Amino acid sequence: MTTQDLIFAAQWVFLGYFLLLNAGYIGLNLVSLFGMRDYFQGRRIESLPKVYSEHEMPISIIVPAYNEAATIVTSVRALLQLRYPEYEIVVVNDGSRDGTLQKLIDEFALVPFPEAYRQRIATQPVKTIYRSAIHPNIRVLDKDNGGKADSLNAGINAARYPLFCGVDADSVLQPDSLYRVLQPFLDDPDTVACGGTIRIANGCRVRDGFIEKIGLPDSTLALLQIMEYLRAFLFGRLGWSPLNALMIISGAFGLFRKEVVVACGGYRTDTLGEDMELVVRLHRMLRKQQRRYRITFVPDPICWTEAPEDLRTLGRQRIRWQRGLAESLTLNQSLMFNPRGGTVGWLAFPFIFLFEFLGPLLEVGGYLFVGIAYWNGWISPDAFLAFLLCAICLGMLLSTSALMLEEISFHVYPGFRNTMLLFGAAILENFGYRQLNAVWRLIGLLQWLIGSKSHWGEMNRGARWSSEDGVGDPAAPAAGHSGSQ
Amino acid sequence: MLDFVAGSDRAIIFAIYSSLIAGSMTVLLFLWVVILRSRLLVQQRRHKAFLDQWRPLLTQVALTEDQTGDDQDLVVPELPKSSLMYFLNEWNVLHDVLRGSAGVRLNAVARRLGVDTAVWKLLNHGRLSDKLIAIATLGHLVENSAWDRIEELLHSHHTLISLMAAKALINIDADRAVPLILPMVTRREDWAAARVSSLLREAGPAATSRPLQQAILEGTPEEAAKLIGFLPTVHRSIAAKVVHEVLQQSVDDRVTSVCLRVADSPLELPQVRHLVNHPRWHIRMRAASVLGRIGYRQDKRLLERLLCDPEWWVRYRAAQALTGLPFIEQKELDRIRQRLDDRYARDMMDQVMAERAA
């Protein structure tokens, strides 16, 4: 085989990969379109007012908190205002060093409580359990540091109710978020987990822990991430949900059937992507048991989270996400092409393995190949431009189709100007941002390959919702183990 | 057009064509987004204008003293065809919020506007969402002439249409509708319990009690297990009677468990005392809860025994039941706590007593 033959073959491999990737996502987009249509028709019956029935199952909200002193009080106050008939809030203080626990004790009049805590999932020792003297539905577990997954497991051990909802301490929820995410559990008793759309709160006005006014951020980096989230949630997840092949529910907000999660062993503490790993493991185990189940998704924007506005933090986040994805897939690799794997084992898992797990390798490889081949004169300038143009145009098509889905569904961002800005972002992200993302993800993949130790970095967040005016000081750092994908 | 790549290999031509197709589709999608946004802005303006004009009027109609709805002085503007859906949405929402004579007056306005005939067109030729709102409207209008058509839709394979039809039939004639709906409840896996519960509540205990009693007592164990959960929607005396009869005969654990959830008559005590020894923990747990609700002094011993149960939930419910008994005082609870040998039972008593104190 000559060099020319190799170059010829490589051209087709990379071109074929890009086309296949985009065709796959456009296919998901179409499934989302139908899913969205059914969902909105379903909402017609719910648009008429209805009283809460006794069938709404009570929910335990679990809030893992590590060094969240800046935001924790506002977050818990906001959780207290959720519209739902019966729920409890279990805050798990994961050995914070910044006075998180003291803030909670002062604000909610916590008193130590002699609880018959049962450790169904092994965790770091729980030192004290507190209960609020003012709000009987607030409990706080003070435990040794063990990470987010360990905190969630401790919260599950302490949870009283059949459903639990893991919430990041810095998440901003819609007041009816619990009610929305519960609907699939009411409609289908086989539902074991449900996630919702996470939106970016940068640019929005947040007051007392709730979104007061929706807007787009000034930061270009945050704006680009908004487009990215639209793509990820509106067809990345909504597309898989009707096929019962959803492989991730964001750790920022997700509702689970407690007994099923306990039977699966809870969250794994040795992975960075504990949210995705749990969902993939649920699929694997329930498929193995040949149980009827549904893991589903509601497209409503039910949770808002702050996106990093500096490249360093964003890069760390994306590296972590890719490592989490790699760990989640490899730990459950027996699901892929398993005879009992169903749609998730035969379609979603291979799709995500090929396009998300190997994606960065092939994407960066493709760009490098075209660049090097052009530099060395192996391909003509025409070919170089043609391949680059193809990658960019397909990227723009995907982003614009996400924008279209947003426009026919929730059109969350008001006004014509915001639509134009989002379209601008859909175009702009293909000139550098996507490529940079691919590089970060490749680093994540390489770090996973060489097996460097998993740990959660600290997130720089503005702690916006804790300030009086709801705008906050972007320079004020807040740390935590949130930042879920 | 592709002169500049003449002589290039097929991969390049393929890449360029793909780019052109993707680029053109991007432009088309963008134009569609612009059209959708422009349409949305127009709709929002139109909706606002509709609400400004019609909301005060409909509120006035709903709150007026006239009981018949024949207020001839009321000036009702013409309803443009383009505003029909806005009107139907607003009108149906008001119907669900308001009760009594307000509904009669809202119906009179709708009839004066010709809505009763317009919705037939939506029902027969509209999209799914149009059909749903048409069914809801005919129900609220108590349109007896629509009964047969809506009964047909009750058997639709589409979940939402069948549920909306059930709701409309209840609105038209609850006594006639419930016996038609109950057999569907047991058959249709796609009817969520929460929605059925809302339907039966809307029908009211007078219409629901007898048919539900009959369906439970004459149904198979599977049907009974499904229907017993709706007993809280019927008259208490009937619910108690049904629970008593089913508990005496039940050989199915699911049925027993659901019965215990709603049992609150002392008539059940002998059976419940027997069930605290049941091999399944969820039945022991429910039996403990029932003893907490209706138990006598002599049941303290049974609850103390359940405090040592291997299952956490049974211990928890037993402790809650014990501490909640109306005739038991704190000193006695302390004594019970002291004589417990089992550490887990003591921990549970500590927790529940602290919960009560808090």
Report on the structure:
The complex is a heterodimer of chains A (485) and B (358). By secondary structure, chain A is α/β, with parallel strands linked by helices. Chain A is built from 14 helices and twelve strands. Chain A has a domain at 55-343: Alpha-Beta Complex (Spore Coat Polysaccharide Biosynthesis Protein SpsA, Chain A). In chain A, the strands form two sheets. Chain A has a ten-stranded mixed sheet, sandwiched between helices. In chain A, helix 1 (3-46) packs parallel to helix 12 and helix 8 packs parallel to helix 9. Chain A is globular, with a radius of gyration of 23 Å. Chain A starts with a helix and ends in a 35-residue tail after the last helix. Chain B has a domain at 263-358: Leucine-rich Repeat Variant (Alpha Horseshoe). Chain B has helices spanning 10-63, 84-97, 101-112, 115-125, 128-140, 147-154, 159-187, 193-203, 205-218, 221-228, 236-249, 253-262, 269-275, 281-294, 300-306, 312-324, 330-338, 343-357. The model of chain B is unreliable at 1-7 (pLDDT under 50). Chains A and B meet through helix 1, helix 12 and helix 13 of A and helix 1, helix 2, helix 5, helix 7 and helix 8 of B.
Descriptive tags:
heterodimer; A: about 475 residues; Spore Coat Polysaccharide Biosynthesis Protein SpsA, Chain A; ten-stranded mixed beta sheet; two-stranded antiparallel sheet; globular; B: about 350 residues; mainly alpha; Leucine-rich Repeat Variant; about 0% strand
Q: Kindly report the average pLDDT value of chain A.
A: 87
- Which class best fits the helix and strand makeup of chain A? alpha/beta
Oligomer: heterodimer
Unreliable stretches of chain A, pLDDT < 50, 5 or more residues?
Answer: 465-479
**Biggest β-sheet description of chain A:** 10 strands, mixed
Amino- and carboxy-terminal Cα gap of chain A? 44 Å
The helix count of chain B comes to: 18
What is the rounded Rg of chain B? 31 Å
| The CATH class of the domain at 263-358 in chain B | Mainly Alpha
Helix content of chain B: over 70%
What integer value in Å does the Rg of chain A equal? 23 Å
Total beta strand runs of chain A:
12
Strand order in the sheet with the most strands of chain A: 3-4-5-2-1-6-11-8-12-7
Pair with the biggest interface: A-B, 55 and 58 residues
Overall helicity of chain A: 40-55%
| CATH fold topology of the domain at 55-343 in chain A | Spore Coat Polysaccharide Biosynthesis Protein SpsA, Chain A
Number of helices of chain A: 14
Helix and strand run of chain B: HHHHHHHHHHHHHHHHHH
Content of β-strand of chain B: under 5%
Number of strands of chain B: 0
Name the CATH superfamily assignment of the domain at 263-358 in chain B: Leucine-rich Repeat Variant
